[in-house]
Design goal:
3 strands; 3-stranded antiparallel beta sheet; 13 helices; 3 domains; mainly alpha; 252 residues
Amino acid sequence: MNRSQSKLTQGIDWPILGLYFALVIIGLLSIFAAEHRDGDNIWQNIITLNKNYARQIMWLGVSLVLATLIWLMDSKFFTATANLLYVLGILLLLLVLAIGQDVKGSHSWLKIGGFQFQPAELTKLFTNLALAKYLSSLETDFTKLRPRLIAAGIALLPCVITILQDETGLALVYFSFFLVMYREGLPSVLLVIAFSAIVLVLSALLVDNKMILLSSLPCWRRLRSIFQDGRYAGANRGCSSLSGYGHSVPPL
């Protein structure tokens, strides 16, 4: 009995599992604290799924069941189906482009009956399995250019399709696979280029005309005080030089 138990628990990363449950509990308590009101029947809300924390508890139970099934499966199953699951994920992403639902400006959701989900979330797992299978293959010589391009293509193909769904934040997660490639021998210069691309994308999302105008707000306050003293012309030139780069100063 002890031998069978030790065999079942062998390979479990207990610190990671503990951190997972800690994060789940913190998240549930945060949602509960935001939604709970005096007089609420907690058990009734959980049974009827009227509150967000109740639905989160339901999905926690579903995830634990799935995790247990995956834990009891033979690892060869994932090796055998990795490429098939990856192709399925790509097809789901392409299906989203055709019949996907718009949710808060993101065209990345599929709705099946009363259930909707993001295929890009599933495809992250499928990409992980496909990339792991390819890198662990004895035929893969990662010191050569062709295997590196294939590995990069496995990671970047779903990333590009996800960007087309206006889900840039989720697409950036796929760049983390380059860390795995770095451990397999990817030159550090290519890793720097990949993460520099992430910085450029984030900068393009954050920096726009509004950000430039906001940076000149202290100058506007100074300008108002100078204008009241009758020295508008000189202040206008000074503020233009600060908010500058071709931006004109509108009349006060």
